[in-house]
Amino acid sequence: MKVLFKNEAIPLIKRLYHDYIRHYIGLIFAVIGLLLILSASTSLQPLLLQQAFDKVFKEKDITYLTLMPIAIILICTVQAVASYYSALLMNKFGSGLIADMRKDLYRHIIDNEIEFYSSHDSGNLLSRVTNEIIGISNATQVFFNAWARQAITSAGLIVVMLYQSVELTLISLSALAIAFYPVMRITKRLKKLVRQSSEQNAKFNARLLESFEGIRVIKAFAKEDFEINKVGQYIIDIKAISNKIISVSSLTPTLMQLLAGIAVAFVIWYGGYQLIHDRMTEGKLIAFITSLLMVSKPIRSLTNAGTIMTAGLVNAERFYSILDLHSKYASRHEGAKLQVDSGAIAFQDVFFEYPNGTKALRGVSFTMEAGKKTALVGHSGSGKSTIFNLLLKFYQTKSGVILIDNQDIKEASIHSVRGHIALVSQEIFIFDDTASNNIGYGREGATQEEIIEAAKAAKCHDFIMNMPSGYDTKLGFFGQNLSGGQKQRIAIARAFLRNAPILLLDEATSALDPKTEMEIQGSLEKLTQGRTTIIIAHRLSTVMKASKMIMMDGGTVKAMGTHEELLANAPAYRDLFGI
Q1: What is the Cα–Cα distance from 385 to 534, expressed in whole angstroms?
Q2: How far apart are CA 237 and CA 471, in angstroms?
Q3: Exposed e or buried b for every residue in 264-303, given b needs 16+ CB within 10 A?
Q4: Please, where are the H alpha helices in 165-223?
Q5: 364: closest CA among 388, 333, 344, 338?
Q6: Is 376:389 a contact under the CB 8 Å cutoff?
Q7: What SS3 state is found at 127?
Q8: 187-196 b/e with 16+ CB inside 10 Å = b?
Q9: Is 353 helix (H, G, I), strand (E, B) or coil?
Q10: What pLDDT does 3 receive?
Q11: pLDDT at residue 1, as a whole number
Q12: What is residue 489's predicted lDDT score, i.e. its pLDDT?
C-alpha cells in the first residue's frame, strides 16, 4: 500500500464523509454549535482578566467587583454544559460510525467467495473488523473533539490576542510557524510506523486465533513452549514498534512546547518594554499573556492528536482495501432462479484450474442420474473435491458446462443453486450455540417441531435430550462438548432439515470408528432416499452400494460403471481399493 501523503488523505477523508459521516450531519452540526459556544466562553476569560486588572485592581471599581464573579460563574456553567453535551453527542456519533462500518465490512467479507479467504487469514480479517474500525472512529472523534474544538478555541483566542496587540500576535505566531516543516517530517515517519503496527497486530491476531483453534494439535505434540515463543516474538515486535511510535510522536508536542516557551518569553520581554514606556496597559499585557498561554494548550492538543489521526487514516486505507476487493463472480442473488425437480446432474467437457494455477479438471464429462447415488473415487488430488466445489459454485469453470436438470448453473444465481444442495462433510463445524440452533442452521425459519423431527431422523434426539438443558444446551466452541459421532449426527440433522433434492457427502464417516459408522450409516441411508446423492469416500464399504462409480485420476475420468463392472474391467479400480 502507498504511504498516505496529504494529497492522498483528502480523497480518503471525502470518501469516509460520503459513505458514513454525512449520515450523522445533524448531530455533527449540533456538536459544532456546542464547540462554538465553548470556544466563545473560553475566549472571554482573558478579557474578563483584563477587566479585573484594569477596573477592579487598578481603578477599584466596586461595580466590576460585584459583576466579575457572577460573569465567571456563568461562563464556567456554560462551558460545563457545552462540554458535557458535546462529549455525549460525539460518543453517540462514534458508536454509530463503528456499527455502520462493521456491518458493511462484515457483509462484504461474508459475501466474498472461497477464493477470497485463501489470501486473507482469519486473524487479519478479525483485526480489520474490530480494532481498525475503532481506530477510524477514534480518529473521527478526535477530529471534532480535538481538532475542531481546539482549532475553534485557538481562533477565538487569537482574535483576543489581535485585539490586545497585532504586533505581539504576529511575533508569537511566527515562532509557532517555524515548527511546520519538522512536524511534516515527523508525521511522514509516523505514518510508516503506524502502518507497520497495524500489519504486525494483524499477524499477531492471526497467530493467536490459530493457536486457539489448533489447541488440540499443540497439546498432542507438546508444542506449548514453541507457540509461547512464537507468539511472544510477535508481542516483542509490537512492543518495539509501539516504542518507536511513542518516541516519534512525542517529538511534536516537545517541539511545540519549546517554541511556545520561547514565544511567551519574548512576549514578556517585549510586552514589558511596551508597558514600561506606557504603550500598553497592565491589564492588556496580562490578558495577552493569558491568551497566549491558553492558545498554546489547544495547539499542543492538536499535535498530540496527530498520532490518533494518522492511525485513523492508515486504518481507513486498510478498511477500503478490503471493501474495494470485489468478487470475480456475480453476487449471491444475481442470475436466474434454478428450478430443480429431479436433480439430474451433468458435467460436459469441464476444465478448471485454481487461482494458484493448479489444473484440477481436464475435460471432465459424466452424468449423475436423478434420485440415485453416484460415488466419486480416486486418489487424493484426483479432482473429486473440485467437483463438489464447482457444484456449490465456490468457483467458476474455465470452460465447459455444468447442468442441473438441464439448466446451466453458470446462468443461475449462487443462492438458488446452493438452496437445492445439502452438504455433509468430514469437517463438521459446530457453533458455540444451542443444539436447536445448530440443527436449525440447516434451514432458516424452521420450527422447533421440524428441528426435533430432523434430529430424530439423524438419531441425535436421544443424546440431545440427555444433555442438561436438552435442545437449549450450548454445544461449546467447535462442539467441544460432543464426540465425533455426535457432531456427525448434528450435521446429518441439518441436512435432513434442509430437505434439498441434491445431497453431497464428502468423507462423511471417515473420522468415525467402524461401530459408530455403522450406526450413522442407517441415518445416511434414510437421508439419501429419493435424493440425487454424490459420495466421496475412500472406504469401499461406503461407496460400493452406489448406482454408479466414477473413478477420477489426474483431473480426468479414468473409468465409470457399477462396482461390479469396474471390479471386472478396471485394474486401476482394483488397485485403488487393494482388491
Answers
A1: 11
A2: 46
A3: beebeebbeebbeeeebbebbbbbbbbbbebbbebbbbbb
A4: 166-177, 180-213, 215-220
A5: 388
A6: no
A7: helix
A8: beebbebbbb
A9: strand
A10: 39
A11: 38
A12: 86
521 phi-psi bin (left φ>0, alpha ψ -120 to 50, beta other): alpha
Cell readout for 471 is 435442545
Domain extent for 113 = 6-323
User: 498: which 3 cell numbers?
Assistant: 434442509
Residue with cell 470556544: 39
pLDDT along the chain (579 residues), means of 10: 53 88 90 83 73 66 73 84 87 90 88 77 79 85 73 75 79 72 78 82 80 73 82 87 82 74 77 75 73 69 70 85 72 76 92 86 92 89 90 88 92 88 85 90 89 89 91 84 84 88 83 70 81 85 83 90 86 81
- DSSP H or E segment with residue 364: strand 359-368
Q: 280: which residues sit within 8 A by CB, 6+ positions away?
A: 164, 165, 271, 274
Q: Could you identify the residue written with the cell 492511525?
A: 311
The answer to whether residues 165 and 284 touch, using CB atoms and an 8 Å cutoff, is yes
Residues 126 and 245 occupy one common structural domain:
yes
Give the number of domains in the chain.
2
Same domain, 282 and 399: no
| Phi, psi dihedrals of residue 402, rounded to the nearest 5° | -115, 125
Q: Domain for residue 328, yes or no? A: no
335 in a structural domain: no
State the sign of the Cα–Cα–Cα–Cα dihedral 8, 10, 13, 17: negative
Cell of 60: 477599584
CA distance 7 to 349: 52
Interatomic CA distance for residues 552 and 489, integer angstroms: 29
Same domain, 296 and 355: no
Measured CA to CA, the distance from residue 175 to residue 262 in angstroms comes to 8
Residue 530 lies in a domain: yes
SS3 461: helix
pLDDT on residue 484:
80
Distance CA 422, CA 491 (A): 10
Report how far apart, in Å, the C-alpha atoms of 87 and of each of 146, 317, 489 are: 11, 27, 53
Rounded-to-integer distance, Cα 37 and Cα 26, Å: 17
Q: Give the phi and the psi of residue 105 in degrees, each rounded to 5.
A: -70, -45
Q: Which amino acid is at 194?
A: V
Q: What is the pLDDT of residue 100?
A: 93
pLDDT of residue 464: 92
Q: What is the pLDDT of residue 327?
A: 63
pLDDT for the residue numbered 329? 54
Question: In sequence order, what are the residues at sequence separation of 6 or more whose Cβ sits closer than 8 angstroms to the Cβ of residue 459?
Answer: 489, 519, 520, 522, 523
Are 359 and 300 within one domain? Answer: no
Q: Residue 37 sits in a domain of what CATH number? A: 1.20.1560.10
